Backbone:
């Protein structure tokens, strides 16, 4: 199910509003689709922009999720840390911590994967750009080809190891 996330200052501090009351309360550019991340006791949400939100977090509430009943649920944007160039987030479930990469969360909920490909590729090569429209599913071979094509991997002068042996380009 797709929800809508809106910034707090567009709601004039009013938490429970009807759909009719919401009309015109926020700028369309300041609202965006979010989806619930399943499998956790706590409610976590991810946006098409790659932001992760938690319901009931102890911080000040900066954002609200508009649920299917038209009720606004206060949520907090979670901090993301960098690991090997990728943004990660810590989610908690029954006392256990799970570190997940943001791009895989976004892709699993917003990017169609009809061929069940295992790798998520950043189309622009920027590992921190986790907008859904910048992500695509691919194979390892497609991912390496893409990295070489956009200049992330300099294939010239590299000893042709087994890792790159399957590259489609001819040199």
Residues:
């Amino acid at each position: 199910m797709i929800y809508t996330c809106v910034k707090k200052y567009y709601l004039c501090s009013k938490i429970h509003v009807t759909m009719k009351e919401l009309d015109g309360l926020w700028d369309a550019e300041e609202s965006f689709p979010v989806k619930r991340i399943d499998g956790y006791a706590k409610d976590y949400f991810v946006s098409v922009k790659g932001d992760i939100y938690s319901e009931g977090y102890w911080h000040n509430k900066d954002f609200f999720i508009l649920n299917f009943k038209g009720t606004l649920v206060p949520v907090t944007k979670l901090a993301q840390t960098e690991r090997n160039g990728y943004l990660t987030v810590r989610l908690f479930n029954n006392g256990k911590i799970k570190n997940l990469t943001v791009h895989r969360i976004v892709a699993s909920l917003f990017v169609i994967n009809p061929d069940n490909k295992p790798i998520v590729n950043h189309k622009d090569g920027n590992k921190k750009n986790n907008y859904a429209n910048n992500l695509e599913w691919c194979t390892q071979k497609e991912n390496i080809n893409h990295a070489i094509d956009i200049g992330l991997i300099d294939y010239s002068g590299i000893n042709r190891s087994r890792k790159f042996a399957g590259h489609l380009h001819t040199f």
User: Anything to note?
Assistant: The chain has two domains: 2-77, 81-164. Residues 89 and 131 are 15 Å apart (CA to CA). Residues 140-149 form the longest helix (10 residues). Helices lie at 19-22, 102-110, 140-149.
